[in-house]
Amino acid sequence: MKPKKTFYAEAAYAAGIAVLALGTALMERANFGMSMVVAPAYLIHLKLSQSLPFFSFGMAEYALQAALLVALALVMGKFKRGYLFSFVTAVIYGFVLDGAIALVGCLPGGGTVDRVVCYVVGLVACSVGVSLLFHTYLPPEAYELFVAELSDRLGTDVSRAKTIYDLCSCAVSVVLSFAFFGFGRFEGVKLGTVFCALVNGWLIGRINHLLERRYEFRDALPWREAFTR
After folding, report:
1. C or N: which end of the chain has fewer Cβ atoms within 10 Å?
2. Where are the domains of the chain?
3. Helix or strand or coil: residue 111?
4. What CA dihedral angle connects 140, 32, 161 and 175, to 10 degrees?
5. Which pLDDT value is given to residue 92?
């Protein structure tokens, strides 16, 4: 067996945020439905930006994640310092996401084939990004933190907890779509959202397996204790 290559946890953090933001931007461009994880924030962005044009998708992301971190603290019965760091990650991700959307918006094309390619690449990229964030001690976004904490509390596999969370998020997104835009119009939540909800947990599990076969995740900096205690 070939020796595993080293993948530093800090690099996994940076790469995870960048790849996740790019994947989300590609799915937004495809317009087949957002990932169920970000669909609630996307719907809030669509609704509020009608009266507040400056309210970007990235801003909606870290605003919603702040609320999710409060809910997580209530579920766990305590507030960890890592939750504050997770919010910092959410803010960083929000800025990177807005940049990725601007970048992807410059891509040529827009036909059905182009949209399908954007959706598939975006879906895989989102799964890779989430998997990378699971392999760093640096605080992930609130979504991934919620899944990790829930998985630990219930003693279940991360991919299974992720699937459950995704399905719940998908249901919330449907309710928000109806509430914001009426029953005759679907925004953000489409067939692509449902498909993503069904396969994303499995896909992340497979990518986790591939990454762990090829790489050994190590710390490059002595920060782990400060972020995990």
Report:
1. N
2. 5-216
3. coil
4. 100
5. 94
